[in-house]
């Protein structure tokens, strides 16, 4: 059983990665229903939290069915991160997580996210202060390094473990790579198999099938896998991996009806959480992913993203079922 502090997260946990503008409560709801063991909020600005900014504070919303869950924060100032960690802890997650991996220019080039990988002493000092400030287990998500010349992920893991983090998730790319190229898990394996590393190590990057999950588990020995982009529009991947690991047999692929039902639930929660207008607007980014692969779908997608009433979207979903169910099998 893998433990983060005293929190049990499964024998080989599958984690939902924190993704900005994706990992909100409605998205987390469908992922949890489909087998995600541990989930994280979207990353939350430390400065936004300590200034009580509405957008940042709303990201603290968590629900009992999501547990265990971690709230992730980011920032470049140690004192702000200390105070933000305390605010996050007060929202009562199981875990407080630190983002040392975001590659986006407006974050990384200000010294936050992956930017702190250029200043390991500061990274260590900041983490130490956060660990001291909160009672919840502290975890970190990071990348291999700033670029291929600055990969020091084993040292990073040792420094972070030394100051008290309870688990580390590593994305197998550098900041310079962004999300391009293939994730390099060899460095993740080096961390996991280093004799001085004792905390759980979770690998992240390019896991998009049960076969790949098993291959990487066996090859690199990680304690669990964090899944990000592969879950967007396809939350079934968590249960598919679990079933295949247990039985060696694939679950049947979700039918069109399964996809429509997932969209309904996702939409309903989005509207409940943010109100009809904003809930519908923020749902628009998901339709293409849920219905990827259906030929001649563009007219329906247009209607879905242009509708501003929930009832109209539900009517369109019914029409999609009538039009495609029985004549199209999702692949």
Protein described:
It is a single chain. This protein folds into two domains: 3-247, TIM Barrel (Alpha-Beta Barrel); 256-324, Non-ribosomal Peptide Synthetase Peptidyl Carrier Protein, Chain A (Orthogonal Bundle), CATH 1.10.1200. Helix content is 44%, strand content 13%. It is built from 15 helices and eleven strands. It has helices at residues 25-33, 46-50, 54-58, 78-90, 105-108, 120-133, 153-162, 186-192, 210-220, 237-247, 256-274, 276-283, 287-290, 298-306, 310-324; strands at residues 3-4, 7-8, 14-16, 38-40, 44-45, 69-74, 95-100, 138-143, 167-171, 201-204, 224-227. Strand 8, helix 7 and strand 9 (167-171) form a beta-alpha-beta unit. The chain is globular, with a radius of gyration of 20 Å.
- CATH topology term of the largest domain: TIM Barrel
Query: Care to count the β-strands?
Result: 11
Strand content: 5-15%
Give the CATH class of the largest domain. Answer: Alpha Beta
CATH superfamily of the largest domain: Aldolase class I
Question: Span between N and C termini?
Answer: 34 Å
Features:
331 residues; alpha/beta; TIM Barrel; Non-ribosomal Peptide Synthetase Peptidyl Carrier Protein, Chain A; 8-stranded parallel barrel; two-stranded antiparallel sheet; 15 helices; 44% helix; globular
Concise synopsis of the structure shown:
The chain is of the alpha/beta class. The chain is built from 15 helices and eleven strands.
């Amino acid at each position: 059983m893998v433990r983060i502090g005293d929190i049990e997260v499964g024998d080989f946990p599958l984690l939902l990665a924190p993704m900005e503008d994706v990992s909100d409560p409605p998205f987390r709801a469908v992922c949890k229903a489909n087998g995600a063991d541990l989930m994280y909020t979207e990353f939350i600005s430390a400065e936004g939290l300590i200034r009580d900014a509405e957008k940042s504070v709303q990201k603290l919303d968590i629900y009992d069915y999501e547990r265990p869950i971690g709230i992730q924060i980011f920032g470049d100032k140690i004192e702000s991160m200390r105070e933000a960690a305390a605010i996050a802890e007060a929202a009562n997650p199981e875990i407080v997580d630190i983002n040392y991996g975001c590659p986006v220019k407006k974050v990384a080039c200000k010294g936050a996210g992956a930017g702190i990988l250029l200043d390991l002493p500061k990274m260590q000092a900041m983490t130490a202060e956060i660990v001291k400030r909160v009672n919840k287990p502290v975890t970190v998500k990071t990348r291999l390094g700033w670029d291929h010349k600055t990969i020091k992920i084993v040292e990073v893991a040792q420094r972070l473990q030394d100051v008290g983090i309870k688990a580390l998730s590593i994305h197998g790319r550098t900041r310079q790579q962004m999300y391009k190229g293939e994730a390099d898990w060899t460095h993740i394996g080096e961390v996991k198999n280093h004799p001085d590393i004792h905390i759980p190590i979770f690998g992240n990057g390019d896991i998009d099938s049960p076969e790949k999950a098993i291959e990487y588990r066996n090859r690199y020995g990680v304690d669990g896998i964090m899944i990000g982009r592969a879950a967007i529009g396809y939350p079934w991947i968590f249960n598919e991996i679990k079933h295949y690991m247990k039985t060696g047999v694939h679950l049947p692929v979700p039918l069109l009806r399964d996809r429509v039902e997932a969209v309904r639930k996702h939409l309903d929660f989005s509207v409940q959480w943010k109100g009809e207008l904003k809930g519908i607007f923020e749902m628009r980014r998901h339709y293409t992913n849920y219905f990827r692969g259906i030929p001649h779908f563009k007219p329906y997608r247009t209607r879905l993203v242009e509708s501003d009433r929930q009832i109209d979207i539900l009517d369109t979903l019914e029409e999609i079922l009538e039009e495609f169910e029985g004549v199209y099998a999702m692949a």
